[in-house]
């Protein structure tokens, strides 16, 4: 019988040089979530930092793959197999270029829209049908390459708004886990 827990994955790149990058908003969100549920993220055998707790009245495993973004799928598939969590109980929190900074959206499935972390996860899980909490980081200015933009730190003004944004992403996740996708989308779209 599958485990009744949910697996919540925050995407990012490991290492202090990436900690403040836009691409690491998923990591930041997972750190805030772990603090909120009172768990410490510890290295596990799945090449991830993971911790367990209760959030929105359900048991969750909160994890950050320790691979680089482009290879997130391996650790996510290993976590899924180790904890025996079905794909319909996986939520991936990630940065989204096509949403204005500060926007939070939820969806089930869909394409990767050029996001290499999602592409890797979809390939490793052999399905697109996992939940996503999409956190808007906005488009790069001018002709800046999107790959350069996502690997830049948030501006000072954006950093000042991060606590509120991370709170909204946690609220969206709570709505998803407690009331389902349609109700959560009504609240956040």
Summarize the structure.
This protein has 189 residues and is of the alpha/beta class. It has helices at residues 25-37, 73-83, 116-125, 146-150, 156-179, 181-188; strands spanning 6-10, 42-44, 48-55, 58-65, 90-96, 104-108, 131-136. The protein has a 7-stranded mixed beta sheet.
Could you explain the architecture of this structure?
It is a single chain. With 189 residues, this protein is an alpha/beta fold. The chain has a single domain (6-188), classed as Peptidyl-tRNA hydrolase (Rossmann fold). It is 38% helix and 22% strand. It is built from six helices and seven strands. It has helices at residues 25-37, 73-83, 116-125, 146-150, 156-179, 181-188; strands at residues 6-10, 42-44, 48-55, 58-65, 90-96, 104-108, 131-136. α5 (156-179) runs antiparallel to α6. It starts with 5 loop residues before the first strand and ends with a helix. The model has no long low-confidence stretch (mean pLDDT 92).
CATH topology: Rossmann fold
CATH homologous superfamily classification: Peptidyl-tRNA hydrolase
What class would the helix/strand composition place it in? alpha/beta
Corresponding CATH architecture:
3-Layer(aba) Sandwich
For the biggest sheet, the summary is: 7 strands, mixed
Flag low-confidence runs.
Answer: none
Strand-residue proportion? 15-25%
Number of DSSP helical runs: 6
- Structurally, how many domains make up the residues? 1
């Amino acid at each position: 019988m599958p485990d009744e827990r949910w697996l919540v994955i925050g995407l990012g790149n490991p290492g202090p040089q990436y900690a403040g990058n836009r691409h690491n908003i998923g990591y930041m969100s997972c750190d805030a979530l772990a603090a909120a549920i009172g768990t410490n993220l510890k290295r596990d055998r799945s090449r991830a930092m993971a911790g367990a707790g209760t959030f929105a009245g359900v048991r969750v495993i909160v994890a950050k793959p320790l691979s680089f973004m482009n290879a997130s799928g391996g650790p996510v598939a290993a976590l899924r197999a180790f904890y025996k969590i079905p794909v319909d109980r996986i939520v991936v929190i990630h940065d989204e270029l096509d949403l204005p900074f500060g926007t939070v959206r939820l969806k089930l499935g869909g394409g990767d829209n050029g996001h290499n972390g999602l592409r890797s996860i979809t390939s490793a899980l052999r399905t697109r049908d996992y939940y996503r909490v999409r956190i808007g980081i906005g488009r790069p200015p001018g002709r800046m390459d999107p790959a350069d933009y996502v690997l830049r730190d948030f501006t000072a003004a954006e950093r000042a708004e991060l606590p509120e944004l991370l709170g909204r992403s946690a609220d969206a996740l709570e709505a998803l886990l407690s009331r389902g996708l349609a109700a959560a989308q009504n609240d956040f779209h």
